[in-house]
Amino acid sequence: MTAGERTSWIIESARSAGFDLCGVAPLDANVFTSPNVLDISRRDRFGELRHLPEWLARGYAGEMKYLHDTRRSDPRAVLPGARSVIVTAVNYHAAQPLSTEMPSDATDAPPRGWISRYAWGDDYHETILPKLNELLSEMRHQFDESFEARAYVDTGPIVERIAAKYAGLGWLGKNTCLINRKLGSWLFLGVIITTLDLEPSLAPGEPPPADLCGSCRRCLDACPTQAFPQPHVLDARRCISYLTIELRGAIPEELRASMGNAVVGCDICQDVCPWNRKAPVTPFADFQPREIEPESPARTGQASLQTSADESGGDRKSRSLLAPELEWLAGLSQRQFSEVFRRSAVKRAKWRGVVRNACVALGNSTISARSPDFARVVRLLERLAACGDDLIAEHARWARDRLTSAATNWADTEPTGESSAVLGADFRGSQSRKI
Ligand code: B12
Ligand code: SF4
Ligand code: SF4
After folding, report:
1. What is the pTM of this model?
2. CA 240 to CA 259: how far, in whole Å?
């Protein structure tokens, strides 16, 4: 088989396995060691990696120590003799509303949070990595020559989006996401790095897909925490995705109010992207929002930090991960958390992190002091504020104080005689995240 035939076979097999996109980027030595080579086809491949040291030096990685792994600067360091990287993409766009389309909480309804689209269904690592490994074993079966290879979904020291760009899958948007002109950016990436000689998807001299952001800057302007110091550059320390999933300690107080109802991740800079307006819908059931069945009475025995379930005599409602009720999330016990989020990407945020985040979102909720829910939410936050976990307790106190001081301020401004619900909503709305 020639290198070209091998590439065609891999791309065809990836399509049959359910991957929406597949391409190959070359890892020839000149790409990384000689930026000034005369061969224009080799110049600037993986060029964005040259910014990595500065990005790290600016501290943008926050506590994500694994991003300092020096192998990230050169994919060949991951696998000696590596010549090619195969990049796959799977569309996870479930046909459900965008976070930016969700109505703000009614002032008299239980407040709801937002779990990012990518985390609604089964953990993509667990869904995609086995598929990639299957593709790899088919390759071993199909190709005569022996070769080394490693498959990764997030897990390897490779900047997958840069590899995807040079495999011809799309461009890197101002929001730093990989965008494909037909599929948009709701894509999970996966890579196989290999010593196999494969024909690159981009012909010699062919540039990677053009950057179609143009003069648009919707993502930059919509980001509630101003996490983009400049287009194409993310300060992860300010990104709600980092704050809710990766950060283990206290969320900086100055960022909490801007986090709105986010509990796990954030979709805003993709929700507003025009290239996602016509994004096709995934056929995979794995990425639909999970529906959580109510617990059987026998299983509700273990003490939780709770909540509404306590007050109603046990959790008997079925729940969806699409805009879930915050009181439910804040009141989950560790055991309940492990059961609800088994094989889910939410696990990465950990139980303590999700309860912490749900407290912040409750503090940001637009719940009116006149609502019967208000007193119940404040009681829940009081209980969490008195729990033995310092991190949760501090965030619960912050949320309680924010809710109750907003209610007090609202009472001070009441004399106009306007509808209290409307006034309450307006006041809270001005403090919480809305774009
Ligand atoms: C760490 C990480 C994060 C971090 C940091 C994100 C980031 N932008 O780097 C956090 C936790 C914030 C995060 C959030 C999200 N993530 Co994430 N994340 C990763 C991970 C594991 C590593 C990415 C990485 O290496 N970042 C390091 C920085 C350096 O990379 P970078 O932002 O591309 O930075 C470059 C530019 O800044 C560029 N640059 C260009 N010009 C200039 C100019 C200057 C002066 C400088 C300094 C730099 C610079 O150079 C830098 C270095 O090359 C990848 C998987 C992987 N192994 O690649 C998934 C991945 C990128 N994440 C993914 C997803 C889905 C998300 C979220 C959408 C999840 C969510 N809904 O909450 C958000 C999106 C937020 C966003 N706008 O990026 C997908 C992206 C798919 C896609 N279509 O692009 C990936 C590929 C996972 C996967 N396997 O599918 N993520
Ligand atoms: S994911 Fe949210 S917080 Fe992070 S950069 Fe995008 S809009 Fe900003
Ligand atoms: S919102 Fe606009 S600027 Fe941002 S990634 Fe999409 S097209 Fe590019």
Report:
1. 0.91
2. 6
Residue 107 has pLDDT above 90, yes or no: no
Which atom of ligand 1 has the smallest separation from the CA of 55? 47
Among all chains, which residue has been given the structure tokens 């983009």? 228
286 is catalytic: no
| CA 164 – ligand 1 centroid, Å | 12
pLDDT digits (tens, 9 = 90+) for 212-225: 999 999 999 999 99
Is any atom of ligand 3 closer than 6 Å to the C-beta of 274?
yes
| Distance in Å, CA 233 to ligand 1 centroid | 9
Q: For the chain, what are the domain ranges?
A: 3-94+121-194, 218-279+290-431
- Between the CA of 93 and the centroid of ligand 1 the distance, in Å, is 18
Under 8 Å between Cβ of 421 and 373: no
At residue 230, what are phi and psi to the nearest 5 degrees?
Answer: -160, 160
* 305-352 tens-digit pLDDT: 444 444 444 456 788 999 999 999 999 999 999 999 999 999 999 999
- Which run of H or E residues covers position 425? helix 420-431
Q: Is 64 in the pocket of ligand 1 (CB under 6 A)?
A: yes
Helix or strand run (H / E) with residue 264? strand 262-264
Q: Say if ligand 1 is within 6 A of residue 54 CB.
A: yes
